[in-house]
Here is the input.
Amino acid sequence: MGNAREIISRLDPDVFHVSTFVLDPPDPRITARKNTRLIQLPRRRQTVRILSEFLWGTHDLLFYLKVSPASRIYMNLRQKWRDRRVTIGTIESQCNVQDEPDVTSEGVRYWRQTVLRCDRLYSNSPFVQSSLQEEFGLGSDVIRTGADTKFFTPAWDRRKNSRLRVLYAGSLCTRKQPQVMLSAAARFPEADFRIVGKGALENEITSRIARERLTNVTLVGALQPDKLREEYRQADIFLFPSIFEGSPKVIVEAAACGLPIIARDSYQPETVLHGVTGFQANSEEELYSFLSLLLQRPDLRMQMGRAGREHSQKFDWDPITRDWESAFFEASSAKLRKAS
Here is the structure.
């Protein structure tokens, strides 16, 4: 998981020993990190290997617990077993999951049986924190989702596009609303629209592009970070029409690359300062209105892009990892106080 990799790679190796599961070739930063144990998982039948580590591993903290059969079994056993290790769960989207079209009732039940039963919960924005309290009556602290603002940087001196370029990056799923990019492309034929990502709606989007002859739309597919960075750098506007979020990392990455952002206000993204680094829209029509304004105003694009770059640095992974280190110290101290 991308966020966990970013945090692990930055944890002080002289203070924190990390054991982490790996399936594909691991991040080189983690491979090179001192005091790091990589636990190779098989392609199939992973539950026994994960559960055995949960039960008999030497860790003090179990961080970034996710929904899985092994997690569910462990959370059930630890109450009977009186396991004293501290479990830490992260909440990364708003919690009115009954309104989320991509989540099944079974998925919600598993989430409640695993992540929401952790000893400590951390939300990635104040809005998510409020949502968790409202929907489940659970308290949490806030540690934000970050981006590598030293890697995602602007290309201020790049050659201007002959046609303005509007970019979307994210999963192609219902809640992300990537199809809004197609409607925008039909409204603004003078601009090019690029969609980065893969997901369940890919075939539907491909068919619609052909059916409506949207020659100004390119479906790029999923990209590795270096190629995604180039997409950000070559774009003029970042349009993110998702309706159900927490604190999307792609918004911070795009802003770090100097792009003005258009997003929804439904999840109150603090990574977008309305009227300063971009716009928060309360309807689809307002998304198009703000897009029209930015397409017409190169001065506003530049002004918001520079402000966005500055604002993005408040969400860099380095200071956010220091917040996680403090949280781990506090959790460990509380555990020792409880044991004594």
Remarks:
- The first helix runs from residue 2 to 10.
- The chain has two domains: 2-146+317-339, 165-315.
